[in-house]
């Protein structure tokens, strides 16, 4: 994959179906997570991996008392306000370098303790969306699992496959696919391979 | 609406209630068990990291998530919401569906920590506010019940002490067992072998951790296939020791009546102060299940809550609480650990279970000299499998990049090289740490939620830091080039919560007698970790189940006296 240039950020499509977030919030979110998980030589970035879709769905189903939606919205609003104050544009309209600069500032502010939860919430949701089972809308095409070297869901592991320095080959299976595989193997009375 | 009376009504069909029912029905008693949850797993339930592990706790959505206790650090402050949902399940089988399955009998020392500490380290060994008491029983008395539960489920492990004879490879510190585990330990792995060798090099005594997971097929029960979805999720093939797989089915076949989605609201008493049954709500309608004996098995918080809301003329401060002991001596486990980076090594930890581990008991209870350390008690250390993807990404060292291209690069190169040692840290009761009803917060049914007043003692933190250092030494011996940790973690609202109806011979400082029955209400029994006078440094479930069996046996033996 070609190196990203730092001219102007490639516009990214906001997720199609918003559940909790407004269209403007989704646009900012997509731009933000694309900087947290950029597209690079190691693989596609956040938007291709479905992270904004995951985040929006997740906030809609969040149990109490976690309540991360408010923290995330605060963070998105803060990013747009900073972008407007600093550059006179919305966050999604900035260059990658400008976007990274603002994110670093907010991270520093968060670390200093003035708004500790918001940036952490944003990061946490991003990680969840990148590394969750694809049925939740993120980790599309196993993008996150491939980066991590997580092989995908395999219900049976042999002794040999639990040894050191023997990375298992990617299986690219979700849990539902693995369960289905197990059922069909049991049905055909053959041992399931994975 | 009144249901036909039963001999015994059990409130809650999890690890505690689900274990007690079988001996009761086998003795010919007519038993009704109420559970707030449903049968589980449902056909479309799939083990999932996101829904289970990371505090979404889908298994608690129907009840426990909606009535979470509030928390405050001291009596001087208002209570606020807890950190998050706790991993408790409302289902027939309860939290035993989703537990981590590390199996540990309590060390003998933990049952008499008070007298042993004072004897060995002098009169200042315990914190001034400590309310620690010795258990009213010893490990020899509990042994048959531990063995019986292990045989029921097919617990896997390697004995270290069979009838006083030490066995190489097992836990040499354990209290004598009457026989070997029913099943051999879960398989060792590259990682657990590495950690065993390293522990031995440090002069420690590593052993394969015991697991409430079947390492082999057992009777007609399924065995583990090391899938990597274990602690935090239900097992896709029911290979965990859950009463839903062994205990409840046999009890139902023998006549146990199970009422699902039945939420207990109140315990009922007559004018003489004897328990008469339980009022519960099912599908919006109130019912009464009357019974000669009531067994409360709804977990620590709910046991306490149901007692405290059940006020009557005979018990104006809540059932069995005329002595003011309900809710006191509350504890929750402290968790800590250490992570280590093994550069350029592939630790291959994504499969298996947390309970598929190498364990070390050298720093447990009083297995080492505490002179000059400033604390008593210890912790169990274990190095296990079951890294999960999101968890792994959240486990990076504090000096690593946190986002962007450098972060991706770091994760790609190192995510498979992070090993973890966990420590389960012993805690003790204190005057300050109590459960009561929150005057300001009610759940959707209008019942006040439990309020936890809970703060760690400074000696708890000394103990935790000591254990962190031991974890670090172990990881470094195994080859970690960089180690890091996180603040010792204690959620007052936790799935490791103890006390509130503690057992003891003295009615002035215990709610329950040595058999699990109320000192004040002779036909009311308690099952579960609310009975524990101390927490030990072991996971609770083995002891929860052993005590439940013991209480059930006692009820059968003394039926005429207890039913009155």
Write the layout of secondary structure elements.
The complex is a heterodimer of chains A (194) and B (564).
Chain A: H1 23-36, H2 51-61, H3 68-87, H4 96-112, H5 116-131, H6 143-148, H7 175-187
Chain B: E1 2-11, H1 17-26, E2 31-34, H2 49-53, E3 70-72, H3 108-111, H4 113-121, H5 139-153, E4 161-162, E5 165-166, H6 190-201, E6 207-208, H7 248-253, E7 257-259, E8 263-269, E9 275-282, E10 285-296, H8 300-309, E11 331-332, E12 334-341, E13 357-360, E14 379-384, H9 389-393, H10 404-414, E15 418-425, E16 434-442, E17 448-453, H11 458-478, E18 482-484, E19 497-498, E20 524-526, H12 541-557, H13 559-563
Parallel strand pairs in B: 1-2, 1-10, 2-7, 3-17, 10-20
Antiparallel strand pairs in B: 4-5, 6-13, 8-9, 9-10, 11-19, 12-15, 12-18, 13-14, 14-15, 16-17
Account of the protein in words:
- The complex is a heterodimer of chains A (194) and B (564).
- Chain A has 194 residues and is mainly alpha-helical.
- Chain A folds into two domains: 23-148, no CATH class; 151-194, no CATH class.
- Chain A has helices at 23-36, 51-61, 68-87, 96-112, 116-131, 143-148, 175-187.
- In chain A, α1 crosses α3 (68-87), α3 packs across α4 and α3 crosses α5 (116-131).
- Chain B has one domain (2-563): FAD/NAD(P)-binding domain, CATH 3.50.50.60.
- The longest helix of chain B is centred in the C-terminal third of the chain and has 21 residues, at 458-478.
- The two termini of chain B are 25 Å apart.
- In chain B, 60% of the residues are buried.
- The mean pLDDT of chain B is 95.
- At the A-B interface, α4, α5, α6 and α7 of A face α6, α9 and α10 of B.
């Amino acid at each position: 994959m070609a190196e990203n240039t730092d001219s102007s950020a490639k516009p990214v499509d906001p997720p199609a179906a918003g559940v909790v977030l407004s269209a403007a919030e989704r646009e900012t979110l997509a731009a933000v997570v694309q900087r947290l998980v950029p597209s690079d030589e190691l693989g596609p970035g956040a938007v291709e991996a479905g992270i904004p879709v995951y985040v929006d769905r997740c906030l809609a189903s969040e149990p109490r008392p976690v309540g991360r939606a408010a923290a995330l919205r605060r963070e998105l609003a803060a990013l747009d306000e900073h972008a407007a104050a600093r550059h006179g544009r919305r966050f999604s309209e900035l260059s990658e370098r400008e976007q990274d600069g603002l994110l670093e500032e907010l991270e520093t502010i968060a670390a200093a303790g003035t708004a500790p939860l918001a940036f952490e919430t944003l990061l946490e949701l991003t990680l969840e969306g990148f590394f969750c089972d694809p049925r939740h809308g993120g980790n599309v095409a196993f993008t996150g699992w491939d980066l991590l070297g997580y092989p995908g869901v395999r219900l049976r592991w042999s002794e040999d496959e639990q040894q050191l320095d023997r990375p298992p080959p990617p299986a690219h299976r979700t849990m539902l696919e693995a369960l289905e595989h197990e059922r069909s193997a049991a049905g055909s009375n053959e041992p399931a391979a994975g | 609406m009144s249901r036909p009376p039963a001999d015994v009504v059990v409130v809650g069909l999890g690890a505690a209630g689900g274990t007690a029912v079988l001996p009761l029905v086998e003795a010919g008693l007519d038993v009704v068990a109420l559970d707030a949850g449903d049968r589980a797993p449902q056909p479309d339930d799939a083990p999932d990291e996101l829904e289970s592990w990371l505090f979404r706790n889908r298994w608690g959505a129907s009840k426990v998530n909606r009535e979470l206790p509030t928390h405050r650090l001291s009596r001087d402050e208002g209570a606020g919401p807890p950190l998050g949902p706790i991993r408790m399940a409302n289902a027939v089988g309860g939290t035993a569906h989703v537990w981590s399955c590390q199996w540990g009998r309590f060390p003998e020392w933990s049952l008499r920590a008070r007298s042993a500490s004072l004897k060995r380290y002098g009169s200042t060994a315990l914190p001034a506010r400590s309310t620690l008491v010795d258990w009213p029983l010893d490990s020899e008395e509990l042994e048959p019940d531990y063995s019986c539960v292990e045989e029921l489920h097919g617990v896997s492990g390697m004995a270290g002490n069979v009838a006083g004879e030490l066995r190489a490879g097992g836990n040499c510190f354990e209290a004598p067992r009457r026989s070997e585990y029913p099943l051999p330990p879960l398989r060792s792995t590259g990682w657990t072998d590495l950690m065993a060798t390293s522990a031995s090099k440090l002069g420690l005594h590593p052993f394969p951790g015991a697991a409430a997971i079947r390492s082999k097929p057992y009777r007609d029960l399924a065995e583990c296939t090391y899938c990597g979805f274990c602690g935090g999720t239900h097992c896709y093939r029911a290979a965990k020791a859950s009463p839903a797989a062994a205990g409840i089915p046999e009890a139902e076949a023998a006549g146990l009546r199970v009422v699902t989605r039945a939420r207990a609201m109140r315990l009922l008493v007559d004018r003489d102060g004897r328990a008469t049954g339980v009022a519960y709500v099912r599908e919006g309608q109130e019912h009464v299940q009357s019974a000669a004996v009531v067994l409360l098995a709804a977990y620590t918080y709910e046991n306490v809550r149901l007692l405290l809301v059940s006020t009557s003329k005979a018990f104006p401060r809540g059932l069995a609480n005329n002595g003011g002991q309900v809710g006191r001596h509350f504890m929750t486990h402290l968790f800590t650990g250490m992570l280590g980076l093994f550069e350029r090594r592939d630790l291959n930890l994504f499969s298996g279970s947390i309970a598929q581990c190498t364990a070390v008991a050298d720093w447990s209870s009083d297995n080492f000299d505490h002179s000059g350390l400033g604390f008593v008690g210890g912790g169990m250390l274990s190095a296990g499998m079951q890294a999960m993807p999101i968890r792994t990404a959240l486990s990076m060292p504090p000096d690593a990049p946190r986002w962007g291209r450098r972060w991706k690069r770091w994760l790609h190169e190192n995510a498979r090289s992070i090993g973890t040692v966990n420590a389960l840290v012993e805690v003790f009761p204190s005057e300050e740490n109590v459960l009561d009803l929150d005057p300001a917060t009610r759940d959707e049914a209008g019942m006040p939620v439990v309020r936890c007043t809970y703060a760690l003692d400074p000696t708890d933190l000394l103990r935790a830091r000591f254990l962190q250092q031991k974890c670090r030494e172990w990881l470094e011996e195994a080859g970690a080039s960089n180690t890091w940790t996180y603040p010792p973690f204690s959620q007052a609202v936790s799935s490791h919560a103890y006390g509130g109806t503690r057992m003891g011979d003295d009615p002035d400082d215990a709610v329950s007698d040595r058999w699990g029955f109320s000192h004040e209400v002779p036909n009311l029994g308690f099952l579960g970790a609310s009975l524990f006078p101390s927490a030990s440094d072991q996971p609770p479930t083995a002891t929860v189940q052993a005590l439940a069996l013991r209480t059930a046996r006692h009820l059968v033996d003394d039926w005429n006296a207890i039913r009155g």
